[in-house]
Q: What sequence folds into this?
């Protein structure tokens, strides 16, 4: 009798688990796979690249001279079941490894771009924890999300990733706030403990216009205040702006600058975009190849030629410094540098 009762209880429990699994399966969204593949050719008109592979214009990512070169293979997985969701994203290739992420302790390049979980407590409030692409700035590592292929000085100088925990609250469709605690910049683990506080205020004043005011501070990271905004003026014309000020700890330097983005879509297959940037290194230290106390202005003109998921990007760029921070054909210091890039990006 006891054996029959126990068997019946097991069958009942199994049935309840099955019903619960079916209910959860009905609430489950499909696994989403997305990502990109990119490759490029770059020609620096001074034909300069040093023995360590550094190029004349030392922003990311198109660095190799006169070569058909690799960007990265980027693969992201995401899924939501009920109120819980996750994102896992890995990259293979120079753009997504040693050029943008720290190496592991054994010297191997780190592959993870994003690895985080989220829970949507209410329609307005959610929390996310893990290793996340930074909330700072206008441009990102993935070439599929940028109009220009080469990146700005502001992007190349700021954080790429923030590991930590953050809370998001949407007061309305037009106003939102994020606050979080994070490790030091670009560190997926920080044995010194959580060191940074970050916040982001989102506002959408009118339809088509979004603005983000970003703030992060901590030691040894320093403090950065960043404004990122874009306005879809018409179906064809988009205007974007990124402005930032960064101060290193103990008055050890930093940078400040701004970048203006203008993009016009002549058709679904052809768009033209320009980026103009001013960037200044503060007096105490160099930033990238910009000498302490000096500045650089950069102009980039890019076309986007689209054939379904494939985008071909021919791009011309010229950078001019207030000091002779570049190298000319005679291997002498000069105040300007220019380059041509032809990139191909396939997004899926």
A:
């Amino acid at each position: 009798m006891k054996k029959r009762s126990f068997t019946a209880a097991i069958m009942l429990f199994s049935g309840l688990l099955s019903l619960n699994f079916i209910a959860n399966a009905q609430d489950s969204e499909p696994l989403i796979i997305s990502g990109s593949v990119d490759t490029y050719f770059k020609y620096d008109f001074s034909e300069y690249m040093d023995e360590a592979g550094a190029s004349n214009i030392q922003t990311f990512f198109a660095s190799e001279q006169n070569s058909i070169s690799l960007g990265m293979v980027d693969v992201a997985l995401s899924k939501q079941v009920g109120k819980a969701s996750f994102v896992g994203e890995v990259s293979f290739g120079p753009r997504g490894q040693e050029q943008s992420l720290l190496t592991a302790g054994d010297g191997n390049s780190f592959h993870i771009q994003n690895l985080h979980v989220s829970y949507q407590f209410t329609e307005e409030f959610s929390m996310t924890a893990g290793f996340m692409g930074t909330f700072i700035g206008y441009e990102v590592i993935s070439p599929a999300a940028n109009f220009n292929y080469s990146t700005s000085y502001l992007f190349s100088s700021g954080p790429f990733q923030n590991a930590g925990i953050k809370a998001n609250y949407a007061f309305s469709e037009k106003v939102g706030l994020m606050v979080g605690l994070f490790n030091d910049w670009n560190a997926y683990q920080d044995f010194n403990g959580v060191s940074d506080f970050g916040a982001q205020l989102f506002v959408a004043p009118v339809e088509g216009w979004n603005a983000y005011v970003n703030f992060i501070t901590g030691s040894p990271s320093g403090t950065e205040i960043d404004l990122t905004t874009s306005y879809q003026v018409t179906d064809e014309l988009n205007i974007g702006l990124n402005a930032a000020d960064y101060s290193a700890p103990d008055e050890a330097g930093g940078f400040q600058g701004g970048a203006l983005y203008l993009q016009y879509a002549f058709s679904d297959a052809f768009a033209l975009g320009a980026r103009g940037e001013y960037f200044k290194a503060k007096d105490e230290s160099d930033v990238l190849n910009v000498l302490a106390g000096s500045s650089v202005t950069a102009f980039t003109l890019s076309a986007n030629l689209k054939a379904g998921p494939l985008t071909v990007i021919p791009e011309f760029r010229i950078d001019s410094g207030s000091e002779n921070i570049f190298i000319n054909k005679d291997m002498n210091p000069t105040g300007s540098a220019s380059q041509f890039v032809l990139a191909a990006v396939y997004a899926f």
User: Anything to note?
Assistant: Confidence is low (pLDDT under 50) at residues 1-25.
